[in-house]
Amino acid sequence: MNRDELVRQQDDWTLTEALHHEHGRGDPFAAAVRATRMPMIITDPNQSDNPIVFANASFQKLTGYTREELIGRNCRFLQGPNTDPTAVAKVRQAIATGEDTSVDLLNYRKDGTPFWNALYVSPVRDDAGVIRFHFASQVDITDRIDQQARVMREKALVEAEVARRVAELRDALDAQRLLLHEVDHRVKNNMTMIGSILRMQLRVAQDSATADLLRLMMSRIDAIASVHRHLYQAEDVTRFDIGSYAVGLASDLAQGQTGAELRVRADLGRAEIPAGQASASGLVVNEVLNHMIAGREGGYLDISSSADVRKVELRIRVSGQAAGESPSSFSPSGITAQIITRLAAQTRTRVEWSQADGGDLEVILSIARDHS
Q1: pLDDT for position 180
Q2: Least packed by Cβ within 10 Å: which of 105, 238, 247, 364?
Q3: Do 52 and 97 form a contact (C-beta atoms < 8 A)?
């Protein structure tokens, strides 16, 4: 070690003998400050502009400045164009009030390269409580900040990709809605056209048997149209609530009964079936309801629905006995029975008919749930 270096080291040693510190005073503290790998400086607020009066070797290595270039200068020269003024103001405020503070500050080395500095500043007081020096330690946290920045960039990229995919899905959903609207419009037009043809035929029917047959056909067309209306007006077009459909259809049929005062009562639980079964199941319900209310002049039509993991159940009960009905003929026959049987098999539906002694007629439709 040459003479000048020895003198500089001795100056550092002597300077720190004046500092009071919780770990002691004098040479042991000075030696620890000089030897530590943590960059450290000491400033003197009793001199003009609070200059640096001590900088250990680690601080010189961190900043690229020599001791001669550091001593006597205020730390602000380490700041640069992207240093946060708010962080700088926090440090100045702490120094002015004599308080400890810590802040992450963007500083610049002698060669102009930036680095993130985890700065801690604390006042050093004498026995009278007067601030003699400010002690500052630094930690280079550039890697941590860079990693955080990479995480934020990657997060932004992921969020942008999610937003793009959401926009694509929203556009696809809008296109699907437009398609459903077009399908809905065309099906309605077709149903209306078929209904109009049947009504024209009904007006020119020559006998009551033909008229009755045409009315039954119109009822079936109306039932399918009602299924379509319920399905495409729902928020979820993939599911069909058979209970609410049955109540609406029963109300329409009851009102169509000439001179009848049949009142519909409902007790509905959630009872949804796949949209693919909607038309067939709806037509089964139509055939059942038409058979049950035929000839009824009053009373109540009770409809309840429920579902469990195995099946959806629809229970329909009508009070009283229809005119001309005998206990042996409470279930349908002919074309009505054929329609119910074939469509029930298609939709995996069990249809159970029963009649009480007072004439009340009940049918239970059990539709197996699709677990595929």
Answers
A1: 66
A2: 238
A3: no
The residue with greater pLDDT, 359 or 350, is: 350
Q: How far apart are CA 161 and CA 157, in angstroms?
A: 6
CB-side neighbour CA atoms (13 Å) of 141: 16
Closest CA to 132 of 212, 53, 217, 28: 53
Q: Report the SS3 class of residue 261.
A: strand
Residue 19 confidence (pLDDT) above 50 = no
Among 69-78, 233-242, 287-296, name the most confident range.
69-78
Closest CA to 253 of 299, 291, 196: 291
Q: Taking 60 as the threshold, does the pLDDT of residue 49 lie above it?
A: yes
Containing 188, the helix (H) or strand (E) segment is helix 142-203
CA neighbours closer than 13 Å in the CB half-sphere of residue 233? 10
Q: In Å, how far are 88, 228, 240, 278, 286 from 188, measured between CA atoms? A: 72, 8, 18, 16, 19
Given a cut of 80, is residue 349 above it in pLDDT? yes
Q: How confident is the model at residue 23 (pLDDT cuts 50, 70, 90)?
A: very low
Q: Domains of the chain (ranges plus CATH)?
A: 3-140 (3.30.450.20), 233-368 (3.30.565.10)
By three-state DSSP, how is residue 322 classified? coil
H or E stretch covering 343: helix 334-346
pLDDT value at residue 46: 92
Nearest residue to 359 (alpha-carbon basis) of 289, 305, 300, 286: 300
Contact of 307 with 358, CB cutoff 8 Å: no
Q: Which two tokens stand for residue 205?
A: 């029917």
Sheet containing 361-368: order of strands: 261-268, 298-307, 311-318, 361-368, 349-355
Q: Which of 238, 244, 236 is nearest to 275 (CA)?
A: 238
Token pair in block for residue 174 = 């809008």
Burial letters 52-77, b for 16+ CB under 10 A, else e = bbbbbbbbbebbebebeebbeeebee
Query: What CA–CA distance (Å, rounded) separates 112 from 201?
Result: 95
SS3 of residue 356 by DSSP: coil
% of the chain surpassing 90 pLDDT: 42
